[in-house]
Design a protein that fits this description.
Elements (H helix, E strand, L loop, with lengths): L2 E9 L3 H12 L4 E5 L15 E3 L10 H18 L4 E2 L3 E5 L13 H12 L4 E3 L1 H7 L10 E5 L3 E3 L1 H14 L3 E4 L3 E6 L4 E5 L3 E9 L5 H5 L1 H4 L3 E12 L12 E5 L7 E4 L7 E4 L6 E2 L10 H11 L6 E15 L7 E4 L2 E7 L10 H14 L19
Parallel strand pairs: 1-2, 1-12, 2-9, 5-14, 12-20
Antiparallel strand pairs: 3-8, 4-8, 5-7, 6-7, 10-11, 11-12, 13-16, 13-17, 13-18, 14-15, 15-16, 19-20
Length: about 400
């Protein structure tokens, strides 16, 4: 195989990879992006029509600058292209036990969200059950809930964001190689070699944003801290679709219990059906072996989650889909150099809450690859800080 040379290779062109490719191209770098599929595609984590975005991040204050910058980047891209990438329809976080509910590995999730909002001056309201039901009568509450409402929260369109950033990257000179599988990433004295099933590349730096395939590519240092989990998404029929339009219904996360998994989340209706889902972190899978069929039992289990909580949804499930979470044990990201080489940058995993930050993560990685420093504090996301799975 011939050797192709470039400044940076980006491996994996989902949310973070497409953002990295775009930001590198914006800075004038010679950059090649590689993906084994044809992004945006259904095989990883950057699909499913919508993704939640919120500004006050209960997972940790270090995420807030990333999401705020991501919102800015999406608006900039919308102005450049005319695409609709981000809808600020408002967001509601519900907890039946303030200070106790666990989400994405973080206890006291609602209280942590409130603290982030206060720290960063993010517009919000704290609502009692009567106020929630008056504003959003679609919810059926027990009466002990507290609601955090954020008008600047909303939803992003992941496939559009990936597509637009890839198109803009190519317009700026980036090359996109699709249907090409990376086999090896080898650090060299003065660069990195990337070998695929079709070619060999030599670059000064490599950004690996391969999601569920990251551990396979990067070896033991990543394999011991990453697990892949299959998730299922559902679009339920609404008896009155008007009631669930974005101007009447927010994105939401509802933590009805205090344990991990005792929650579900959802969106307003932006196409056919109201999208709702839960999350599971008890049965790992492999990205090449995941069962992408959704069973009737899974549909019925989701309907039971919704029954008595959201009015006028079901029993019809109009469609369903699977996606993958690549997760650390503490639910936090890895944005760091590989321990074997400062020339290999790792951008994985998202642990189920990464899309909202992805545009800014691309900017951070571009600066890190080209100039050795990031405009954001990435120290909380170092690989050494992630515990191994037990």
């Amino acid at each position: 195989m011939d050797m192709l040379t470039t400044d940076v290779v980006v491996v994996g062109l989902g949310a973070m990879g497409s953002a990295s490719l775009y930001q590198l191209a914006r800075r004038g770098a010679r950059v090649i992006g590689i993906d084994r599929h044809v992004p945006p595609h259904i095989y990883g984590s950057s699909h499913g029509e919508t993704r939640i975005t919120r500004q006050a991040i209960g997972e940790g204050a270090a995420y807030v600058p990333l999401v705020l910058r991501s919102h800015q980047i999406w608006r900039e891209l919308e102005a450049q292209t005319g695409a609709s990438l981000f809808l600020a329809c408002g967001g509601l976080i519900l907890s039946g036990a303030v200070g106790q509910a666990l989400h994405h590995g973080k206890p006291q999730f609602l209280e942590r969200t409130l603290e982030a909002a206060r720290q960063f001056g993010i517009s919000h309201e704290v609502l009692n059950p009567a106020q929630i039901e008056a504003r959003f009568p679609q919810f059926s509450l027990k009466g002990d809930e507290t609601g955090y409402y954020e008008p600047g929260a909303g939803l992003g369109y992941p496939e559009r964001c990936v597509q637009v950033q890839l198109e803009q990257a190519q317009r700026l000179g980036a090359a996109v190689h699709i249907g090409e599988t990376v086999r090896r990433i080898v650090p060299l004295k003065d660069g990195v070699e990337v070998e695929t099933d079709q070619a060999r590349y030599q670059a000064a730096k490599v950004v690996v944003s391969a999601g569920a395939w990251a551990a396979e590519l990067l070896g033991e240092p990543l394999a011991r801290v990453l697990r892949v989990y299959r998730q299922v998404l559902f679009w339920l029929e609404a008896h009155d679709p008007q009631a669930y339009l974005p101007e009447r219904f927010p994105i939401f996360i509802w933590m009805f219990g205090s344990a991990e998994g005792e929650h579900f989340y959802g969106f307003p209706q932006v196409s056919q059906g109201v999208k709702v889902a839960t999350e599971q972190a008890h049965t790992p899978t492999h990205p090449d072996q995941v069962d992408r069929r959704v069973s009737e039992a899974e549909i019925q289990a989701m309907l039971r989650y919704v029954q008595g909580r959201l009015k006028g949804l079901g029993p019809g499930c109009l469609r369903s889909a699977t996606c993958l979470y690549t997760s650390t044990a503490d639910g936090d990201f890895i944005l760091d150099h590989h321990p074997d080489s400062e020339r290999i940058l790792v951008a994985s995993p998202c642990s189920g809450h990464g899309f909202k930050h992805s545009a800014a993560v691309g900017e951070a990685l571009a600066e890190l690859a080209l100039h050795g420093q990031s405009p954001f504090d990435l120290s909380p996301f170092r690989l050494a800080r992630r515990p191994a799975w037990g």
